[in-house]
Amino acid sequence: MTRRAWIGVRATAVGLPLLVMTACGKPAVEEVESQSVVTVTIATAQVGAIVGLVHATGLVTPSPGAELIVVAPEAARIAEIPRAAGDPVKKGDVLVRFEVPSSTADLERQQAEVARSRAALETATAAKARAAALFAKGIAARRDVEESTRAAAEAEAAVSQAKAALGSAQTVAARAVVRATFDGVVAKRSHNPGDLVEASASDPVLRVIDPRRLEVVASAPLADAARIRVGAAAHVSGGAVDVGELALRVVGGAVAVEPGTATIPVRLAPAGPMRLPAGTPIDVSIEAERHPTAILIPAAAVVRDGEETSVFVAVSGKAKKRAVKLGLADGAHVEILSGVKAGDAVIVDGQAGLPDDAAVSAKPAGDGEK
Questions:
Q1: Is the separation of the CB atoms in 43 and 302 below 8 Å?
Q2: Which residues, at least 6 apart from 26, have a Cβ–Cβ distance to it below 8 Å?
Q3: Which class is domain 38-50+292-364?
């Protein structure tokens, strides 16, 4: 054997163990992967009642009749505005006194017209009586009596017309003084004495509300309009402030879509005092359908992949992936319409990234917790 041939044989002999080791190594890795056991937490699917919820965002607002926005009756100057924001008011208190030059002048003119027409009526009545007396003595003609009677009637009609005009002028003048229509609190003051204001809702002077009469106006999705019924229970589920357990009730159903949105306004009244300022944003959950005998699993068990929903069920040490169809959800639980039956052990923790038919070691939810 030549030296070159011997070297080749030696190299081949050295390479054989490496090939054997490589070939033997692959099954070993696959065996470790297939026998890897994942610890998961399970819960039992059960039959129970579930109530569907409609989630909406809302604002705390005054109830109907519990808000007064003061606007000038016409272009005017503010003569008096004694209350500031936060001040309490009683029914009948003066809120704003306006100076309206046109209404003042009109009132004075109508008062003068009433006085003039009354004087004319007195003169016409006296002339009528005089003509009647003369006619009775045969001195005056019947035509004189008729003319005096007609003149007295016209004078009386003029008095009635002047009184009506005066009443209208007094009504307009009365609008120059705005009084509180209920006990409440000044929520906002936008002007001061001496300011010129317009007779427009865009130029309010004062806003008064009754903080004891508040409600929630929520904007619910249009798609859920048919699910909301008057009298349904609701509760606050979040928002800018923590209001604790605040029970609500639907008092006004949705009848019109809010302009420019795909939502409907829903009025909700509190079951008790609402100690929140008007304008507070909150989230509410409104109770809708109720299914008394639904198959329920914890919401944490549901795995979502795009539009597909599935659940892993622990069966004989294996995780079996099952496609499911969901029904109602209340946040903590979901209703299963198909794919899982009552008594199945669904995996609620540890299923993320778990392949189908993976080996698992299951422990009931709550084990090891204090």
A1: no
A2: none
A3: mainly beta
- The domain limits of the chain are 38-50+292-364, 55-65+211-291, 67-98+179-209, 101-175
Model confidence pLDDT, tens digit, residues 116-145:
999 998 998 998 888 888 888 888 788 888
Quote the Cα angle for 35-38-44, to 5°: 125
Dist CA 306 CA 309 (whole Å): 8
- Taking CB atoms within 8 Å and a gap of at least 24, the contacts of 27-36 are 34/359, 35/359, 36/359
Sequence letter at residue 243: V
CB 75 within 8 A of CB 292: no
* First CA to last CA distance, the chain: 78
pLDDT at 172: 73
Torsions phi, psi for 18 (to 5 deg): -65, -45
Query: How is residue 40 annotated by DSSP?
Result: E
Predicted confidence (pLDDT) per residue in 204-262, tens digit = 999 999 999 999 999 999 999 999 999 999 998 877 666 667 889 999 876 788 888 88
pTM of the model: 0.64
DSSP H/E element including 5: helix 3-34
Rounded to 5 degrees, φ, ψ at 131 are -65, -35
Spell out the residues 6+ positions from residue 43 whose beta carbon is closer than 8 angstroms to its own: 297, 298, 301, 345, 346, 348, 364, 365
CATH code of domain 67-98+179-209: 2.40.50.100
Rounded to whole angstroms, the Cα distance separating 288 from 265 reads 16
- Above 80 in pLDDT, residue 313? yes
Q: What is the pLDDT of residue 283?
A: 92
**Per-residue pLDDT at 140:** 77
Give the distance from CA 114 to its chain's centroid: 53
Give the CATH number of domain 101-175; options: 1.10.287, 1.20.1250, 3.30.420, 3.90.1200. Answer: 1.10.287
